[in-house]
Amino acid sequence: MTDTNVWDAPLDDAPTEGRFVRPSDVGSERVVAAAVMARPHLIDDLADSFDPVDFTDQRLAWVWHAVDELRAEITEGPVPWPAVDRQLRKWRAEGYLPIVPLDGPHLSLLYDDAHLSCSAAWYADRVTKAAAACRMVDLGIRAQQAGMSPAFDPDADVATTQADLDAIVRGDAGGIPTPIGDLWAAAVERAVTPTTTENRIPTGLLDLDSLTGGGFAPGRLIIIGARPGAGKTTAGQGLARAAAIANGIPTLFSSLEMGREEIMGGILSAECRVPLHHISHGTVGIDDAYRLAVATERIKPAPLYIDDATSVSLPSLRGQIRQLVRTVGLRMVIVDYLQLMQAPRAESRQVAVSALSRGLKLLAKEFGITVIVLSQLNRDSEKRTDKRPTIADLRESGAIEQDADMVILIHRPDLHEPDSPRAGEVDLIVDKHRGGPRATLTAAFQGHYARIADMAQMSDYQPTPINNGGLAIATYDEDPQEREAS
């Protein structure tokens, strides 16, 4: 068999006529394999841009691995082909090598063809591009098979295909550890640079902004938990308004509980301070109608996107996020609420919720956005004398607590005691805060306006430390709604 036939033949030496042949560039693969034999340091030089998994001829891939193994012993100069041959035969004898490797004569020919002056990086790039084309072809085949299947699911299958396509475009590879010296300068710069809306998302509440260093950071998963009727949706809408309407930050609000008309009613009520029941019943008076009209210029251009789909899965949510990140620069997602999301199939509800919470955290990291997820609490807090919720009250709390960067629990004293002296107040209990202190912050709950508002400026409201590392609740002499009205 001639040298040309060796390199052109498929791995199983079967005839190629009538067979489907995927894209490849074996010629460039051969150059890369020969180059690392002659210059083993290229394995390190190409580490950031080339992955040996992209070799389509696995015989050449194993040459790369053999050189990588031997360079620990042969620390200077090239790795000669006899050493590579011995290493391959050793792996083969041990059952470690799943294919028949190149033999001595072919390794000798490969080594002789190593061009010391060639640009190995250029040929490695050709191999990488051919591998991406091959993955594209394979993805097209899988997409065709999924579309032809009687079990085709538009939400899951299309979103999965989009995710696979993103992986091809980005050429995702395993993370490469970074030495601390390379991170030091950026860390110091962040430490001395005041936060802005470019690196934080304001919450609309002064105390919460202060606690979080100016707002929520990208890549974070924030959980807001509450019992039904306590105001978690109101809190979520307030965060969406603060980001999109007040600061022009592109935000997606995905509600599985309320329709878009209800969501818009709450946003209009909170922004314009028009009673929510007037908007819901269509009984808005002339003065309030004027307020709604004036707010048009502020609300209408806001980059707030509302989705009221009745079923949302991780793949479908990822598809929405990917599209909005590319088209409008999406920076925050709010999901209302976790327990209504379509969970992946699992042996138990706890395992399914674990997959959901982990997937949401990965979405935040992958796209560099803030993900806020509303979650229901179980009934345990209602059985206690002290009705204040704790992080353990989250439904399926183990996985949620583990994945979340921050957990905020909502407590309204007057929800359980209508005659409470703290009527109209709401406690935001920050029970987990990765990278910051825990705290209990007090705000005004204005349910008739579908809003949670600041009770005082920071100079008027100074929480004091308590033993558990959190902050105590501040007290006020005047009624919170009167303070807000003033």
Task: Give me a quick take on this structure.
The chain is of the alpha/beta class. 47% of the residues lie in helices and 11% in strands. The model is unreliable at 1-18 and 457-486 (pLDDT under 50).
Please describe what this structure looks like.
By secondary structure, this protein is an alpha/beta fold. The protein folds into two domains: 3-152, DNAb Helicase, Chain A; 195-485, Rossmann fold, CATH 3.40.50. The chain is 47% helix and 11% strand. It is built from 21 helices and nine strands. It has helices at 3-8, 26-38, 42-45, 58-70, 81-93, 104-112, 120-148, 154-170, 180-192, 206-211, 232-247, 260-272, 276-281, 286-294, 296-299, 314-328, 349-367, 380-383, 397-403, 413-416, 480-485; strands at residues 221-226, 251-255, 304-307, 332-336, 370-376, 406-411, 425-433, 439-446, 451-453. Strand 7 (425-433) and strand 8 (439-446) form a beta hairpin.
Helix content: 40-55%
CATH class of the largest domain: Alpha Beta
CATH topology category name of the largest domain? Rossmann fold
Number of domains: 2
